[in-house]
Amino acid sequence: MVLLSTPHTRFHRSFLAAADEFRAAGEAQHDGVVNWPAEGEFPGVVFTREALDDPAEFERLVANRVGDADEASPRPPGWSSATYWWMEDPERPHEYVGSISLRHRIDHPLLASIGGHVGYGVRPGARRRGYASDALRQVVPLAAARGIERLLVTCDLDNIASARTIEANGGRFEREQSGKRRYWIETGA
């Protein structure tokens, strides 16, 4: 069992250790360090791993992750609001083991084709313990509560573990597209 926690500053050190693990494994795209460059009228939101050592900067990252659930929060043009949870092992409180997010809509062409409603990542040192599968299981009813009837969940073609996670949670394979496997999960909404 994994706890889904609202992002919080109590995870500061373990979040940074996880970011370093992701980077060492060549998976910086999952490190949780937000980098949205300026686009159009959007001023951009950029954090760096080094700057996040500063507790005040990390607090700003936490506020960004929590605030992204608000439709009015700044984001790149066409991107949806999203709710973020940080995964926490209940036997090791305040230990960041990964994250999962639920995009409230997938109107943007990139999200509708390969991004999907749900994104998740488990730090390399915490894999193969069922965290991703349990987190996805918990997010499905949360999506239903938001009125989302079907979730698009994608994974890389070669990510067999993620494909199994999605399938274990009711994911029905649709097709391969742009280097991704596309699955749909009925939420029961």
Automatic annotation (TrEMBL):
<dbReference type="Pfam" id="PF13302">
    <property type="entry name" value="Acetyltransf_3"/>
</dbReference>
<dbReference type="InterPro" id="IPR016181">
    <property type="entry name" value="Acyl_CoA_acyltransferase"/>
</dbReference>
<feature type="domain" description="N-acetyltransferase">
    <location>
        <begin position="45"/>
        <end position="189"/>
    </location>
</feature>
<dbReference type="InterPro" id="IPR000182">
    <property type="entry name" value="GNAT_dom"/>
</dbReference>
<protein>
    <recommendedName>
        <fullName>N-acetyltransferase domain-containing protein</fullName>
    </recommendedName>
</protein>
